[in-house]
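Listing S7. Sequence submitted for prediction.
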Amino acid sequence: MARVLGKGLPNAPVFSLPASSSPILSTPSGKVANLRSGCSGFLARSGLRLKVDRRSRSGVIRGRNGAAVLVRCEAAAVAEKEEAEASGEKFEYQAEVSRLLDLIVHSLYSHKEVFLRELVSNASDALDKLRFLSVTEPHLLGDAGDLEIRIKPDPDNGTITITDTGIGMTKEELIDCLGTIAQSGTSKFLKALKENKDLGSDNGLIGQFGVGFYSAFLVAEKVVVSTKSPRSDKQYVWEAVSDSSSYVIREETDPEKLLLRGTQITLYLREDDKYEFSEPTRIQNLVKNYSQFVSFPIYTWQEKSRTVEVEEEEEPNEGEEVKPEDEVKRKKKTKTEKYWDWELANETKPIWMRNAKEVEKDEYHEFYKKTFNEFLDPLVYTHFTTEGEVEFRSVLFIPGMGPLNNEEVVNPKTKNIRLYVKRVFISDDFDGELFPRYLSFVKGVVDSNDLPLNVSREILQESRVVRIMRKRLVRKTFDMIQELSESENKEDYKKFWENFGRFLKLGCIEDTGNHKRITPLLRFYTSKSEEELTSLDEYVENMGENQNAIYYLATDSLKSAKTAPFLEKLVQKDIEVLYLVEPIDEVAIQNLQTYKEKKFVDISKEDLELGDEDEVNERETKQEYNLLCDWIKQQLGEKVAKVQVSKRLCSSPCVLVSGKFGWSANMERLMKAQALGDTSSLEFMRGRRILEINTDHPIIKDLNAACKSAPDSSDAKRAVDLLYDTALISSGFSPDSPAELGNKIYDMMAIALGGRWGRSDEDSDESGTEGGSVEQSDLASSTAEAEVVEPSEVRAESDPWND
């Protein structure tokens, strides 16, 4: 410990005490003294005296002989040091109000039209506050009329007036709420409500940030707020202009502008926004879009028309005398006249706020059609409430018709999900936050009270709450589709599959976590069900005892799948095969890999195992045709990787199969058709081709004899080339040179048809001679110089212009 030396006692011994809450002193006799409690009495009994210096926080102990000891606690030194470090001045942040307002107005909001949403939400909060307070203070309601909101645009003067019959504000509340930026009166009100759980348990208050009011300056150059609180006898007016750092509050003295209760906001629109936002139809559309489900009625000032009957005087005919007014005949006519009146803008009620058991099917259909502008009833819907860690209400629909173009399938940004917070529309522009891309066809509304929103209420922030909400929405959607698939009316699910089946197949590729939910919903045509779609569950139930895999074949059409040579042995053994006829099918199945512990096997690839092979017979057949396989491989060269005896053929002479790890013929066809396909990757990913021969076919038996007796025969070699090209087409591959293949077929046809119907050798010679003469004449005409003939000299005999 550091020694501390007192100024007045240069020769006195010094004790340094530890920095504890109760400094102690140990005397020569071994007794301990507490300097803070009972020190004086203890020292007096020991013949010592203590003198404390409060300024230096030290003490001097003197004995009877006059000796002195200076005592000082280290805690005092530490406290002095901390006090010295914390002795700096404290300052508060300053803000340039006009600049801050400019940032709030022009940086928080992406679209100007949201100003109406914010102001209507504020009006709704004012009405809600009055409704809550009137429970304990009924006199606040008074005789000021119903709780409602009225919006009146004035195109002539370029203004919008929003009036509510809510709680209003006193002068102090005007200064506190509108004069203090980012202070939410609703948040303060909610804080007070928490102390009274009976009132605060079920509220629909919207505000939370305290900046929504200033969104009025997005379109207004001047804002006037006139408000009357039932707790005050006076009505006050708050007035401010944009790009200003000050505002004015005055008492309303004009008797024509006095309000019974509530608030009236008048926006004086900017020149650029005057024509758009003062249009009554535009205002009504904005209300229906953003505030359609606000719990209070919203009326807008609209132009209407009606038919009335009027009496008109009959005009006298020419030459008739003018009759006196009493004798003039009058006739009635119908006339259409225009007038202005209030119209309810939010007629549709938020059915998701009601109990699902109380809502009829027709109400759901009507809500769906009005909300999403549809003309067909939905195929199915679900209405649910989620509680617990995340609380929200939702109604989801599956449309009655799928999208008309493929762009909507690929594009994850759709406007099918409408997000609400406390019944106020927030957004319908999502990029996969609430639903994955493959479920983008689902339409519905989601309403939550505590979503993580930015201040602009436009952007859904990425958070754990959003991930949980997405997970539950997806789960409920699959439950809804599963119920549809299990319903008694099979036509409904067939219609769903025709419209949205490709979406679910896309889910097999993009969402591995939900494979167990997606796979039971898939449907395919099969070799045993070519007219009706079959589920994988039905396929597994119909499997034989020895079948250990789910077999499939990917082709470009159902017709080509039925006639494919790969099926022959499987059909003979009564093994069912899935037909994958849509471009996305093969990729989807490859991503699934297994279903109910059964692997998916492509029958167009090598090493097909059917489970009941006779190994002894196969070994003998391979030995017998081993020479033929080598001879064919030698003739084809690099076109095939190998030639082997087939296990899958019955009637076809041969088939061309793909290797295990490369593309199938169907996938190779699809990749070649890609608009931005890469030829280098095609060569790399193209699987090796293996020619499998059917040893029971006559053509193969003839070739086997040819390779043993005449291996150098040109006819046999041509037959092998044609056999390969034919297998190439029948197996789903594209020939490299279609014209060359055509010539080979013509030659074989000429050999097969030569002289069959009695064509003589002379005819063939004459045809050959004629062919030679034609060639010679063509050559002569090509070498001769062309005669130039003027157009005027060329005239036909039947020319009508001839003299």
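Caption to Listing S7: primary sequence and predicted structure tokens for the chain studied. Confidence is low (pLDDT under 50) at residues 1-38, 197-204, 770-786. The radius of gyration is 46 Å.
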